[in-house]
Specification:
Radius of gyration of chain A: 17 Å
CATH topology of chain A: Rossmann fold
Strand content of chain B: 5-15%
CATH class of one domain in chain B: Mainly Alpha
Largest sheet of chain A: 7 strands, mixed
CATH topology of one domain in chain B: Son of sevenless (SoS) protein, Chain S, domain 1
Structural class of chain A: alpha/beta
Number of strands of chain B: 10
Distance between the termini of chain A: 11 Å
CATH superfamily of one domain in chain B: Son of sevenless (SoS) protein Chain: S domain 1
Strand content of chain A: 15-25%
Mean pLDDT of chain A: 79
Largest interface: A-B, 53 and 74 residues
Shape of chain A: globular
Oligomer: heterodimer
Distance between the termini of chain B: 26 Å
CATH architecture of one domain in chain B: Up-down Bundle
CATH architecture of chain A: 3-Layer(aba) Sandwich
Number of helices of chain B: 27
Shape of chain B: flat
Number of strands of chain A: 7
Helix content of chain B: 40-55%
CATH superfamily of chain A: P-loop containing nucleotide triphosphate hydrolases
Number of domains of chain A: 1
Low-confidence stretches of chain A: 28-41, 188-209
Strand order of the largest sheet of chain B: 1-2-3-5-4
Order of helices and strands of chain A: EHEEHEHHEHEHEH
Low-confidence stretches of chain B: 101-110, 171-181, 326-353, 379-384, 409-498, 598-613
Chain lengths: ~210, ~625
């Protein structure tokens, strides 16, 4: 892999964070419990713009009910999915708090995508698409409505976030070598470290995927 | 035939082969152990009726089945329904038998199995039946049992339980957290409290709440209120409320408008000292609460204050108590070894012999993840059947972690001897678990913690001594001293569970990834037994990687050694013996170059199997 990003999934309890994560990791692969030892989720390698990126995804999975999601959880995260439930205004109202925490406790450059989850429950909707996208715009967030149930936009949310981080690295806005950026180089990549962007083609060749 | 599943009248069974030691003469110094292989049938999924009738099946080979069901049935049904089905089924069987067999078998079927289950329910899961104030399921139980003369004695016991519950009244469900205590203080008061005084008071409250935790309420779907069920876990919520009350107290004590930087720094120092004492008291719940507050955004951003704090090293040291916030990453291994990898890094393990108040969040998180990841039902012929596999996993996790801690605490109050006995017994059943599982999910071999749980089935512990090394089998008599107990447990775990990077008892777990395959799966874990040939392992790995459409013949199995070296496992080798045990147990499936199916490039010296083409 070329890079390793630390990702967070944050948001109020009951918004479906763990389901989003599970949907993303298990993806289209059918579950075959016969051969599973343990639940293997937590990271996934994706291919973004010719680079292989390992996403290491942290999930609070219920701990947000305890006020225990703090500095040590956020530290060094490169990206985050900020999740609310479109059928619950309460979870939407809590977004500001989560956002403040993420921006101050993770790195200030953290790339955040807002996810309005449970898109499949449109009949019970309490937060409109328009309202949320305005919020996203004001706070410089990307925005998608997702459904962990159907899988709609789940992949996109993670990939979009990863893509943005990569482009920030390429434009020099993010420096992977800075401590706490949440970005690490994968094994083969040290060589490419300081090479000009022209070597991207070469990198693609090495990748074999 | 290692791992077949078959369906039978609304139930799916899994068949596994398992090796068990043959009982030999009682000489513990015997240098070898004989094994025999036997077939084990385990229920994997079934309709509710079938789940219950399996419970009453006297031929049921799964000793822990009753406990698994009783620990986890809440995920798919209610107590009332379970009682109804069990008793109705019992009556039905009796009637049928009366007619057909003329009382012939009545003495053992299904009377004894139902009796056992009901007794277990009464003794170990009675909290389930509390549901104050109406105690409806307990009433139903009494009523139902009254209908069957054979069950009268049990009915009496249940009635006594009902009376006890009624006598307790309603006070049980109300956890009045006296928030006034936290709010009334002003800064001067707080600084006047003694550090130990506060720590002890917190610990008393936390311990009180923790002792009341009812294990089933920890189930992921119950406590996290999946599907917005009403709150079924008051004991968990009481714990959470206490935790949050403590963090709020810490935060508010620091954010008074009047306080100066130095004053705030002194308050932080005081809280750090309180946390330190809580840690000494093994109250990890409060330690975590205080640390969370100090690391929260409103406090963390007070740069000047932090700069004025002395003894930062104590604070940082305390933070190390909770080494990794990221449960997702550890949960992969958490099944393999609940306490060894994950908890032993903190002080949990050494203190698990008694008197610990853990931070419950860690366990609840894992259970939530299990709830997310494991399917509740499987579709079989358009019939929805509860997926029991998943519940077995829950059970194992709950039993082995939460119950262990709970029983540890209770035991420490009563009698240290009891703990040691139960721990020795249960490690036996874990071993069973492991050998029974053979790459099958339900046992999650993995999931066993090396420590005690409340369960200890005598039959399993009787055969297990052979499995253990002499030192550990002797220690069951050893120890009133909790430290002895815990070190004993550790040694058991080291020698008897399948680990990554360790071959134990004819099995181990290897990690297999597929080269040039970028489907998002880094590696998959496979349980390897001493019976597995290369081809089988490759096939299993491909299946796990969801690559069923390719032929196993196109792949070779390669172990990745240190310094870029590799070990090519020959086609006909027994992987267990062929692999290098000194390296990491990391394997790669490599596609053979075109036209060169299974041509061995180079085989490093192997202990078994000739390297044939």
């Amino acid at each position: 892999t070329d890079f390793l990003f630390k990702f967070l999934v944050i948001g109020s309890a009951g918004t479906g964070k763990s389901c989003l994560l599970h949907q993303f990791i298990e993806n289209k692969f059918k579950q075959d419990s016969n051969h599973t030892i343990g639940v293997e989720f937590g990271s996934r390698v994706v291919n973004v713009g010719g680079k292989t990126v390992k996403l290491q995804i942290w999930d609070t999975a219920g701990q947000e009910r305890f006020r225990s999601v703090t500095r040590s959880y956020y530290r060094g995260a490169a990206g985050a999915l900020l999740v609310y439930d479109i059928t619950s205004r309460e979870t939407y109202n809590a977004l500001t708090n989560w956002l403040t925490d993420a921006r101050t406790l993770a790195s200030p450059n953290i790339v955040i995508i807002l996810c309005g989850n449970k898109k499949d429950l449109d009949a019970d909707r309490e937060v409109t698409f328009l309202e949320a996208s305005r919020f996203a715009q004001e706070n410089e967030l990307m925005f998608l409505e997702t459904s962990a149930l159907t899988g709609e936009n789940v992949e996109e949310a993670f990939l979009k976030c990863a893509r943005t981080i990569l482009s920030k690295i390429e434009s020099g806005e993010l420096d992977p070598e800075r401590m706490g950026s949440g970005i690490q180089y994968g094994d083969a990549s040290l060589r490419q470290l300081r090479q000009p962007r022209g070597s991207a083609a070469q990198a693609r060749q090495q990748c074999n995927c | 035939l290692k791992n077949k599943s078959f369906k039978l009248y609304g139930a799916v069974f899994g068949i596994t082969l398992r090796r068990e030691p043959v009982q030999q003469s009682a000489d513990p110094t015997e240098a070898f152990v004989q094994y025999r292989t036997c077939k084990v049938r385990r229920l994997k999924a079934a309709t509710l009726d079938k789940l219950v009738s399996h419970l009453l099946d006297p031929c049921c080979q799964e000793q822990d089945y009753g406990r698994i069901l009783l620990s986890t049935y809440r995920t798919f049904t209610s107590s009332n329904k379970l009682i109804d089905i069990a008793v109705n089924l019992y009556s039905l069987c009796k009637t049928v038998l009366k007619i057909q067999l003329q009382y012939f078998l009545l003495s053992w079927f299904p009377h004894s199995s139902l009796w056992t289950v009901l007794q277990m329910w009464l003794e170990e899961y009675s909290d389930d039946l509390r549901d104050a104030p109406m105690h409806s399921s307990l009433r139903l139980m009494c009523l139902q049992l009254r209908g069957h003369p054979a069950l009268f004695p049990l009915a009496k016991h249940y009635e006594t339980l009902l009376k006890n519950f009624q006598a307790e009244g309603h006070c049980w469900i109300i956890y009045s957290l006296n928030k006034g205590v936290y709010e009334a203080d002003n800064l001067a008061d707080f600084m006047g409290f003694s550090v130990t005084g506060v720590a002890e008071q917190l610990t008393r409250m936390d311990a009180d709440l923790f002792m009341k935790v009812v294990p089933f309420q920890c189930l992921g779907c119950v406590w996290s209120q999946r599907d917005k069920k009403e709150n079924l876990s008051p004991t968990i919520w009481a714990t959470i409320a206490q935790f949050n009350a403590v963090t709020n107290w810490v935060i508010t004590s620091l954010l008074r408008s009047s306080s100066s930087v130095t004053q705030r720094a002194r308050v932080i120092e005081k809280w750090v000292r309180i946390a330190q004492v809580c840690r000494e008291l093994k109250n990890f719940s409060s330690v975590k609460a205080i640390l969370s507050a100090l690391q929260s955004n409103p406090i963390y951003r007070l740069r000047k204050t932090w700069a004025a704090v002395k003894a930062m090293s104590v604070f940082e040291n305390l933070c190390e108590t909770f080494p990794d916030e990221n449960c997702v990453l550890t949960s992969r291994e958490i099944f393999v070894d609940v306490s060894y990898e994950h908890i032993s890094q903190s002080d949990f393990l050494q203190s698990s012999a008694g008197g610990t108040v853990p931070y419950l969040g860690t366990y609840l998180t894992v259970l939530t993840m299990l709830d997310t990841a494991l399917p509740d039902t499987v579709e079989v012929r358009l019939e929805s059947e509860s997926c029991f596999d998943a519940h077995a996993t829950y059970y194992i996790f709950i039993e082995k972690s939460v119950c262990r801690l709970l029983s540890g605490n209770e035991g420490s109050k009563k009698n240290a001897d009891q703990i040691s006995v139960s721990s020795a017994g249960s490690s036996g059943s874990e071993i069973e678990e492991i050998s029974a599982s053979q790459s099958n999910t339900e046992a999650f071999p993995s999931s066993s913690s090396p420590d005690s749980s409340t369960m200890s089935s005598s039959s399993s512990s009787s055969q297990q001594d052979l499995n253990l090394n002499p030192s550990s089998s002797s220690s069951s008599s050893a120890s009133a001293d909790p430290h002895l107990v815990s070190s004993h447990k550790r040694s058991v775990s080291m020698t008897s569970l399948p680990f990554y990077n360790r071959q134990v008892d004819g099995s181990c777990i290897i990690r297999v990834s597929v080269e040039f395959c970028n489907n998002g799966n880094m590696y998959k874990s496979i349980l390897l037994t001493s019976q597995d040939k290369t081809a089988q392992v490759i096939q299993r790995a491909l299946q796990k990687h969801n690559l069923e459409d390719v032929s196993e013949q196109d792949f070779t199995l390669v172990q990745v050694l240190a310094q870029g070296r590799e070990l090519h496992v020959p086609e006909k080798a027994n992987v267990y013996y062929a692999m290098s045990t000194s390296a990491n147990y990391d394997f790669v499936l490599r596609r053979c170059p075109k036209g060169q199916r299974k041509q061995l490039i180079r085989s490093v010296s192997l202990s078994s199997g000739r390297a044939t083409k």
